């Protein structure tokens, strides 16, 4: 591992669940604070950072639809949940001395800027941490797809998916003791073996644009920086 970051610009996908720590709902201030510190640390090391945050700690459209709500309305609520999470992360970053901007795919001018690609790139070039909220702005998508989309749009050289497990396994390691972890996979492996990495739309977008994807355990402090220094943490998904 070298001290110089291996990556110039990254897109980090944090699920809403990542923010709730051990709780069943909402945001754990300790968890969001630690994640903010890790993001600031890699920014200070010279890496340009965009972040897509999910909303599953508050609302998911599919869950609301299963409970009887109109799916599109549920998805709108899910997207607004991601805006709340992004505001919380921006606050956590700025309280710790970083610079953040929230850019939303849904117009909500009193609380966030619109996502405009060139402005987003300008923010990250200036050292600000750009938080991309409201997913893609469209129902029936997920924030995984939004993360793949934004990664390609901002020209990231790595898409990181932060999870609570240390990579992709042959089976669910919580249920199958014989499950083993993959160090590396191809996009087609993920799609054909139906590995639960990201949804298929997100993986296909990464594949079509050659966007390397690394799945790693964000509960281990320092993992983000380890990856930035070239550490082989978690599972890498590429074309070969
Ligand atoms: N969502 C959407 N379009 C998008 C992204 C998200 O409609 O482009 C909605 C959808 O209802 C989703 C919710 O927002 O369930 C929260 O996003 P997601 O489930 O991806 O969050 P995560 O699982 O990452 O916390």
From TrEMBL:
UMP binds at residues 55, 75, 136-143. One of its GO terms (molecular function) is ATP binding. It comes from the Bacteria. It catalyses: UMP + ATP = UDP + ADP. ATP binds at residues 13-16, 56, 60, 163, 169, 172. The keyword Ligase does not apply. Inhibited by UTP. Residues 9-216 form the Aspartate/glutamate/uridylate kinase domain. Pathway: Pyrimidine metabolism; CTP biosynthesis via de novo pathway; UDP from UMP (UMPK route): step 1/1. Transmembrane segments: none annotated. One of its GO terms (biological process) is 'de novo' CTP biosynthetic process. Catalyzes the reversible phosphorylation of UMP to UDP. This is Uridylate kinase. The gene is pyrH.
């Amino acid at each position: 591992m070298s001290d110089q970051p291996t990556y110039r610009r990254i897109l980090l996908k944090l699920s809403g669940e990542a923010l709730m720590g051990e709780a069943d709902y909402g945001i754990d201030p300790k968890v969001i604070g630690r994640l903010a510190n890790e993001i600031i640390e890699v920014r200070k090391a010279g890496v340009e950072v965009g972040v897509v945050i999910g909303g599953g700690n508050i609302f998911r459209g599919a869950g609301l639809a299963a409970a009887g709500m109109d799916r599109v309305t549920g998805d709108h609520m899910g997207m607004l949940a991601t805006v709340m999470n992004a505001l919380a992360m921006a606050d956590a970053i700025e309280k710790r001395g970083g610079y953040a901007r929230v850019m939303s795919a849904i117009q909500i001018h009193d609380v966030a800027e619109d996502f405009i690609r060139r402005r987003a790139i300008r923010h990250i070039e200036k050292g600000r941490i750009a938080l991309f909220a409201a997913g893609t702005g469209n129902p029936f998508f997920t924030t995984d797809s939004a993360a793949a989309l934004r990664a390609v749009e901002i020209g990231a050289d790595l898409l990181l998916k932060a999870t609570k497990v240390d990579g992709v396994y042959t089976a669910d390691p919580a249920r199958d003791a014989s499950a083993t972890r993959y160090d590396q996979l191809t996009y087609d492996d993920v799609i054909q073996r139906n590995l639960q990495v990201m949804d298929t739309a997100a993986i296909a977008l990464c594949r079509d644009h050659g966007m390397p994807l690394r799945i790693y355990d964000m509960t281990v402090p320092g993992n983000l920086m380890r990856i930035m220094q070239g550490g082989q943490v978690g599972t890498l998904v590429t074309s070969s």
